[in-house]
Amino acid sequence: MAKTVSYGRQKKYDRLFDIGNFIFLTVVAIVTVYPFLNVLAISLNDSIDTVRGGIHIWPREFTLDNYREIFKYDNLITGFINSATRTVIGTILGVLSSAMVAFTLSRADFQGRKVISTIIVLTMYFSGGLIPGYMLIRDLGMINTYWVYIIPGIVNAFNIIIVRSFMDGLPYSLQESAKIDGANDFTIFWKIIMPLCKPVLATVALFVAVGQWNSWYDTYLFNSQNPALTTLQYELMKILQNTNMGATDPNAMKGLSKDQMAQFVSPESIKMAITIVTVVPILIVYPFVQKHFVQGMTIGAVKS
């Protein structure tokens, strides 16, 4: 009888836990999704009407004019092409270089791996600074060149550590068996290690791709004088800077016609449209790497 009561009480606690867990996760989902829906609604709302406020998850005056306005700016298409190409090239080379360095450091027979690993980790805490970095890029002749987007960030210490941690968990006997069969180091790396590292490589690829896609400061520092090498984020940043901030108060626009208001209104909707334009490509790519990304983020969480 006591066991029956205890079992019924435990089942009741489990049910209460499930209800509480559902409520908590629902709140987290709302808090997570609402900002994006709010930005999307404002981006699809009339720019002048947005100043009144009160827009939540549905546009009050639906329009696509904000997106049309964005693509009227010069160099936006050029910036999109440059951002897309630097993302693809930078991601491929960044993942490949990080994997090669990590493979070398994960080898038990590599004598200097502890020293080199320490040096790599130190670069995460100390850097030369902005001015020495600019002077280095200048002395390398990469000012106003496309490769300034690729070469400086081709090797990342954080990505190397992530990939190496994953490779350390792979059985070293696989490499020994391959050596016995006559495989060289390149064959071991390319045909054995790389296929097993798909989860961590997908994780690193997402990190690198997001960083490349969102980067604009390198364009500002090194290629701002060359319109042909502009990037989408840099062009959108210039649009934000050129935004008229003078009439954000609705009371200041009383008595003005709609044409007059259009000259003074702070286009908050355009800003939100810019945000959507920058986010959508990443949202399109993420579902394809989500499975591997989740696996890669749990590296080291379970030890056998």
Helix and strand arrangement:
Layout: H1 2-43, H2 47-50, H3 65-70, H4 76-106, H5 113-122, H6 130-139, H7 157-168, H8 173-180, H9 185-196, H10 198-214, H11 217-222, H12 232-241, H13 258-264, H14 268-297
Helix pairs in contact: 1-14, 4-7, 4-10, 4-12, 7-10, 8-9, 10-14
What does this structure look like?
The chain has 14 helices and no strands. The chain folds into two domains: 2-71 and 243-297, no CATH class; 76-229, MetI-like (MetI-like fold, Orthogonal Bundle), CATH 1.10.3720. The longest helix is centred in the N-terminal third of the chain and has 42 residues, at 2-43. The chain starts with a helix and ends in a 7-residue tail after the last helix. The protein is mainly alpha-helical. Helix 4 (76-106) crosses helix 7, helix 4 crosses helix 12 and helix 10 runs antiparallel to helix 14 (268-297).
Total domain modules: 2
Give unreliable regions as ranges.
Answer: 245-250, 300-304
Strand content: under 5%
What string gives the helices and strands in order? HHHHHHHHHHHHHH
Please bin the fraction of helical residues. 55-70%
Oligomer: single chain
What is the global morphology? Answer: flat
CATH architecture of the largest domain: Orthogonal Bundle
User: Major beta sheet, specifics?
Assistant: none
**What separation lies between the terminal Cα atoms?**
41 Å
State mean pLDDT (0 to 100 scale): 81
CATH C-level category of the largest domain: Mainly Alpha
Q: How many DSSP helices?
A: 14
Question: What class do helices, strands and sheet pairing give?
Answer: mainly alpha
Q: What is the tally of beta strands?
A: 0
Radius of gyration: 26 Å
CATH topology of the largest domain: MetI-like fold
The CATH superfamily title of the largest domain = MetI-like
